[in-house]
Specification:
The protein is 32% helix and 18% strand. By secondary structure, it is α/β, with parallel strands linked by helices. The strands form 2 sheets. Strands 4-3-2-5-6 form a 5-stranded mixed beta sheet, sandwiched between helices. Strands 1-7 form a two-stranded antiparallel sheet.
């Protein structure tokens, strides 16, 4: 259990998993997940070697009916920025991505963006890509950014940002502002897909995985593969 691990590493407090679970149950903080199933086979996670090279983007509808857009780094899981708005649009997708690219300085800029087939990202009435009449597609072409589309019916292709939105749903209500939530997510909350033994946060991982000027950038989109057993 994550809580027991954090207490053990951060506070040098040894406590059994079942004791933590019992305490959470006592205070009504445990809910069953009806969709949880045992993993049938090992799965392979594809991720970039360097931070800041590939970004995931997606729109999501929160409990208040707002449209939420986030830009997440593939390698470190750092969420560069996000917005909550009344309606989604291609222009807002462009504006957020452009502001992220201007704000974050890195030896290698964002070279790839992964999205679904939503109308905020592509012209859904045209199969041929890119469609230069579509604002977001045109922006990527003009800035030499590769647009990788998830396979239809396979949301796990963009699973990292889907997982982020689960965390957003669970914790956003605790914070008065979106900036406060992002600080919590990026800088305070350890991420189980990173260096869990060191309680690494996305901000920590971003700094660790950011390429240095001495690195060989011959193929910055080279994919590192890790397997979870």
């Amino acid at each position: 259990m994550a809580i027991a691990h954090v207490l053990r590493v951060r506070d040098d407090l040894s406590i059994a998993h079942n004791r933590v679970h019992a305490i959470l149950e006592e205070y009504d903080h445990v809910t069953d997940n009806p969709n949880k199933q045992g993993r049938r086979r090992p799965w392979v996670r594809f991720e970039r070697q360097y931070a800041g090279v590939t970004a995931h983007m997606d729109w999501y509808t929160n409990d208040q009916g707002q449209q939420v857009l986030a830009v997440e780094d593939d390698a470190s899981r750092r969420v560069f920025d996000m917005i909550e708005t009344d309606a989604s649009s291609a222009s807002q997708s462009v504006e957020l991505l452009d502001s992220v690219r201007e704000e974050w300085e890195a030896p290698v800029p964002i070279l790839e963006v992964i999205t679904d087939h939503g109308s905020e990202f592509i012209n859904t009435h045209q199969d041929e890509r890119p469609c230069l009449d579509h604002e977001f597609e045109r922006y990527l072409v003009e800035n030499e950014i590769t647009h990788t589309l998830c396979k239809v019916g396979r949301p796990q292709s963009n699973g990292k940002i889907e997982r982020f939105f689960q965390t957003y749903d669970k914790h956003r209500w605790r914070f008065g502002t979106l900036d406060e939530f992002l600080t919590f997510y990026n800088e305070e909350r350890p991420h189980m897909s990173l260096d869990w033994d060191e309680l690494e946060t996305p901000a920590d991982a971003f700094d660790r995985l950011l390429p240095s000027p001495q690195d060989d950038f011959e193929d910055p989109l080279a994919t590192e593969v890790s397997t979870d057993e």
